[in-house]
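User: Could you write out the 3D structure of this protein bound to flavin-adenine dinucleotide? I've included everything you need below.
Assistant: Certainly. Input first, then the structure.
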Amino acid sequence: MRIIVTVKQVPDPEAPQSSFTADRAAKRVAVASSVPAAVSDYDNYATEAALRIKDADTDSTVSVVSLGESHVLDVIKRPLAMGADDLFLVQDPDLPNGDPVTVAAALAAAIRKIGDFDLILSGRQSSDLDQGIVATALAAILDIPVLTNAIAIEASGDEVQIARIVDDGIDTVAARLPALVTVSNELGQPRYATMRGIMAARRVDPTVWGKGDLEAMDAADPFTQVVDLFAPEKSSNVEMIEGETPAEAAKALALRLREERLI
Amino acid sequence: MAGENGILIVAETGADGSLSSITNELMSAAQGLAADLGEPISAALIGNGVGDRAQDIINLGADTVYQVDGDQFASYLNETYTPAVIAIAQQANPRIILIGHTPNGRDLGPYLAVRLQTGIASDTSGLSIADGQLQAARSVAGGLFRQVVSFPKMPAIATVHMKAYDGAEPQSGRSGNVVNVDVGLDASSVRSRFVKHADAQIEGIRLEDATIVVTGGRGMGDEAGFNELYKLQALLPQAAVGATRAATDSGFCEQDLMIGITGRVVSPDVYIAIALSGASQHMAGCSGSKNIVAINRDPEANIFSESRFGVVGDYKQVLPALIEEVQKLMQG
Ligand SMILES: Cc1cc2nc3c(=O)[nH]c(=O)nc-3n(C[C@H](O)[C@H](O)[C@H](O)COP(=O)(O)OP(=O)(O)OC[C@H]3O[C@@H](n4cnc5c(N)ncnc54)[C@H](O)[C@@H]3O)c2cc1C
Ligand SMILES: Cc1cc2nc3c(=O)[nH]c(=O)nc-3n(C[C@H](O)[C@H](O)[C@H](O)COP(=O)(O)OP(=O)(O)OC[C@H]3O[C@@H](n4cnc5c(N)ncnc54)[C@H](O)[C@@H]3O)c2cc1C
């Protein structure tokens, strides 16, 4: 099976909150240079899902495609170190600022250029912007079926079947291949990169495409525009409940909650 | 298309066929926008045997309900619901389409946007009209910032954060139009299929319906520590237990207790946050709570700045004493 995983490079979302500030003029989040890059969280799960299919069907290949202004090679090679086969980087300083549908169109162009595929795996949403739009839009542009928020995936023959959490339980749905599936963290922990994997990843030269290498790279009219970005005001007025001992404080808390008719 | 007018909401029904609470929330979001625009509200109602729900939606405030009814639509599938909404949008020709940011709404929205050649903003929680068009505010970077998005094209599509709006109250006997829409879906073009649905195995009440939520984080230490939370929950009426992602990932409890940007969204009267730091991704799922109560041994923990009441201390000492006192209060 030929699998493509879409992977976004993001600023490490677990970095201290103070390293992120609102650049109101540029209408985007300014990230301190001390913040390391990371693979967007759910894309690690998408990679894991691809590798599980490959574990079972060793003829499978797993290609990774990422689009960004630029990439930190040691970071974006993590899926390779986990066991993916090759890496395609699309680099354009303007495109990542495009709206998600424009980003999806560029990814679609890259994937068409990579060639035939059976299955595309993506994260359910990115760690920084959390839109959860790009992957589903990508499927629509490629005109393939999409199944989202997979917590378990089975691909066999010409079909992929997934389980997904819905409001009141779990749905099982299936799609004929080629299809796109977005992956959620309930799938289970992504594997670690092995030493051998890291060494192998070092030897992989990514294919790098820039503006001009792909059709549809020019975002003519944006579909959405960010008109403002700001840090919401936070006013804290916490009432700290104290006591001689933690147990005393707990007792005082219970009484206070009763006084307010909260319990 | 030109002459776009009004707001179309995409209604959702639950497994039992009744309208989901997100439908009421979308309706109240739409009412604010409709009042500003002086334009009508319509609703898309899609399913199998959902006809009786049309009047329910009219009672919530819809002027027109566009209904797609048939066994092809018995369960949600992107490939059947997208053409259904498109067929409805062609008749309604709305300026704005509002969809719930629910598992199915998130699945539908972007596909629909691409098909309609228009823009979408997801997980929005502040909708307004500027210069006669939609503006949508949403959180980014796990809730650290707010982004305001405008839409150069119509219809503007937004998925709306669950619980961002109080649900509209029904007014019985309102009048409105019901229009049956034929999608003309070619079954052979559908490449996906619905296999089955399994109801969630929940003991007690749903997290979303609880009036008190007791949530534990990584600091609970292990499963046995986490299980102490159930002692407090059992004493309180209409209470449920939740968890942070650190707690579920560490295996303290089931995954589906996770609250946050990628988990459940709750807005109880009281949210008791124990041994959790208050990461923005977690707060995105509980910041609508009326009263947050924090117990944490770190006085600098962010959760305190989001709380109404706080106790600094090791939960191993605080929680047993709290349970004991609550038990006394409940008995007396
Ligand atoms: C005006 C404006 C301001 C912006 N500001 C910023 C900013 O401050 N910082 C910033 O990083 N971007 C910014 N963007 C860029 C842009 O929104 C995103 O790169 C793009 O829309 C992806 O959206 P998302 O991150 O929410 O991805 P989602 O839709 O949440 O991503 C879902 C999945 O799609 C795949 N995917 C998404 N993006 C990529 C990618 N680039 N390469 C490979 N796979 C991908 C991944 O598998 C991911 O898990 C801005 C966009 C606009 C419109
Ligand atoms: C893309 C993305 C999505 C995410 N989505 C979610 C989500 O939906 N929900 C979610 O919850 N998280 C989510 N996270 C993770 C989130 O960023 C945090 O890592 C997580 O919420 C932290 O959980 P925590 O507060 O339990 O753990 P920590 O941040 O480790 O906090 C533990 C707290 O417990 C306190 N503590 C320790 N021991 C004790 C004790 N004995 N007594 C009292 N206090 C004690 C500590 O002082 C500390 O404040 C997401 C992250 C990413 C990147």
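Residues 245 and 258 of chain B are 6 Å apart (CA to CA).
User: Perfect, thank you.
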